[in-house]
């Protein structure tokens, strides 16, 4: 884990950790020729923005995939257990979550999906979670979310992140591993945990076991609904029918109190625990049976300050002896990344060209003004007649050059401005990192209140709806 060298000790931001110069050594990652990764060393390496050798990355993916393949569609788990909602590539918040929840060496975790996209450290999230799964297969359990698909990761930013940090083959192998993830979990035979929600085609728990999960999620059916459906946003769960088309997502359904009650009665369960939706407090208790009753649906979201915009809290659920405790936490600062994982040299080219052209134009303008006097002084006696002939010609040429460079400067300035606008737009649409000025004029501070949160959520939901229209 040798860091980048700094022989002159002239780094501008000295309190920033120097990233590792080379990928993590194979013998450090897999000590004693073991196939079990050292997750402590790996965590610290990834925390410093380090990478792995391609062969080591593939080994971790294949080892985790073999475990996922052996697991059923529906996991049967017992508490004590910690249930984690969406992470969305927020690696440094994932590290904070483990600090709060406890070491996976002794603590059991169930992740509800959506590990990638939106955030810019999705590969680090996958590498760490897969390594923990390999090291502690009976402590780490992972379900599939709607973003664990080829369509979603291509539309948003995980695919480009993989190609930037590794290559297309690494992305394809991770996608193949996503096809192996289980879809749901039954905890204490009382709680069902999944990413999205229930389906009108889900009559019994056994129906989940009949799903062919080893593929790209379809656009409809039980498989789709488990990943995409939502509870109705109503304090009483009121809906004119049990299920209605999910207009916000552009696919699947929304379900209400009646559908949930009938499902829980049929299956003899207490509650549905799911992720899939950002929450201002990191969680939401859908108490459709009354404020004194156990919530029939619980939503948990574990990505604080989602998209670096929402300023929301994150939460995890601690389930022990059928008792639910909510643990909230705030965001952790992370290294800055340019939009679309652009390097600083490519990002700075438009600015550099504009400045060079400005210098060139200034020199030509000076020459065009002073050239006549200098030339007259130098050649006045020797070649007055000759200079008269060429003076006007050179003057016209210089004048044309100045005009051309002026036009070019305007063009480059416009290109740079459009370049900046496109970067910001792409960050909004594809990465989900919505700039504050998307919602507020004059760059007003983004405060953590429900009104601003709902504005951000509305824009975010429109992006996913656009995706479903796109496919």
From TrEMBL:
The keyword NAD does not apply. PANTHER family: SERINE/THREONINE-PROTEIN PHOSPHATASE 2B CATALYTIC SUBUNIT 1-RELATED (PTHR45673). Keywords: Coiled coil, Hydrolase. This is Serine/threonine-protein phosphatase. It comes from Blepharisma stoltei. It catalyses: O-phospho-L-threonyl-[protein] + H2O = L-threonyl-[protein] + phosphate. InterPro entries: Calcineurin-like_PHP (IPR004843), Metallo-depent_PP-like (IPR029052), PP2B (IPR043360), Ser/Thr-sp_prot-phosphatase (IPR006186). It is an enzyme of class 3 (hydrolase). SUPFAM superfamilies: Metallo-dependent phosphatases (SSF56300). It comes from the Eukaryota. Belongs to the PPP phosphatase family. Residues 143-148 form the Serine/threonine specific protein phosphatases domain. GO terms for biological process: calcineurin-mediated signaling. Its EC number is 3.1.3.16. GO terms for molecular function: calmodulin-dependent protein phosphatase activity. The keyword Repeat does not apply. Residues 369-396 form a coiled coil.
């Amino acid at each position: 884990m040798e860091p980048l060298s700094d022989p002159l000790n002239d780094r501008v931001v000295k309190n920033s950790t120097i990233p590792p110069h080379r990928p993590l050594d194979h013998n450090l990652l897999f000590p004693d020729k073991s196939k079990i990764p050292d997750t402590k060393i790996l965590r610290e390496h990834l925390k410093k923005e380090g990478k792995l050798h391609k062969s080591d990355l593939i080994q971790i993916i294949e080892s985790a995939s073999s475990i996922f393949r052996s697991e059923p569609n529906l996991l049967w788990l017992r508490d004590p257990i910690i249930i984690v909602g969406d992470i969305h590539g927020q690696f440094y918040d994932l590290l904070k979550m483990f600090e709060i929840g406890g070491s996976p060496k002794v603590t059991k975790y169930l992740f509800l999906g959506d590990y990638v996209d939106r955030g810019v450290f999705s590969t680090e999230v996958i590498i760490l979670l897969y390594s923990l799964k390999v090291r502690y297969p009976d402590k780490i359990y992972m379900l599939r979310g709607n973003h664990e698909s080829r369509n979603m990761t291509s539309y948003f930013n995980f695919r480009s992140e993989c190609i930037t940090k590794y290559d297309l083959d690494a992305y394809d192998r991770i996608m193949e591993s996503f096809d192996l993830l289980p879809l749901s979990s039954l905890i204490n035979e009382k709680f069902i945990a999944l990413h999205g929600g229930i389906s009108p085609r889900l009559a019994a728990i056994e129906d989940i076991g009949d799903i062919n999960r080893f593929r790209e999620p379809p656009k409809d059916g039980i498989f789709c609904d488990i990943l995409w459906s939502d509870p109705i946003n109503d304090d009483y769960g009121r809906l004119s029918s049990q299920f209605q088309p999910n207009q916000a997502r552009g696919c699947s359904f929304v379900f209400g109190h009646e559908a949930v009650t009938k499902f829980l009665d049929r299956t003899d369960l207490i509650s549905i625990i799911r992720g899939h939706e950002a929450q201002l407090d990191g969680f939401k208790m859908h108490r459709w049976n009354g404020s004194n009753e156990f919530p029939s649906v619980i939503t948990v979201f574990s990505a604080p300050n989602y998209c670096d915009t929402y300023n929301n809290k994150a939460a995890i659920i601690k389930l022990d002896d059928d008792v639910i405790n909510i643990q909230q936490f705030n965001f952790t600062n992370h290294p800055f990344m340019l939009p679309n994982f652009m390097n600083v040299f490519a990002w700075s080219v438009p600015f550099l060209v504009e400045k060079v052209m400005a210098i060139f134009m200034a020199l030509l303008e000076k020459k065009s003004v002073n050239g006549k006097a200098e030339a007259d002084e130098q050649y006045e006696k020797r070649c007055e007649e000759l200079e008269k002939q060429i003076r006007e010609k050179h003057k016209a040429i210089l004048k044309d050059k100045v005009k051309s460079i002026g036009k070019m400067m305007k063009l480059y300035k416009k290109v740079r401005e459009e370049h900046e606008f496109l970067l910001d737009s792409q960050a909004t649409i594809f990465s989900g990192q919505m700039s504050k000025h998307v919602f507020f004029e004059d760059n007003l501070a983004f405060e953590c209140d429900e009104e601003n949160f709902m504005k951000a959520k509305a824009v975010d939901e429109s992006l996913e709806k656009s995706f479903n229209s796109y496919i």
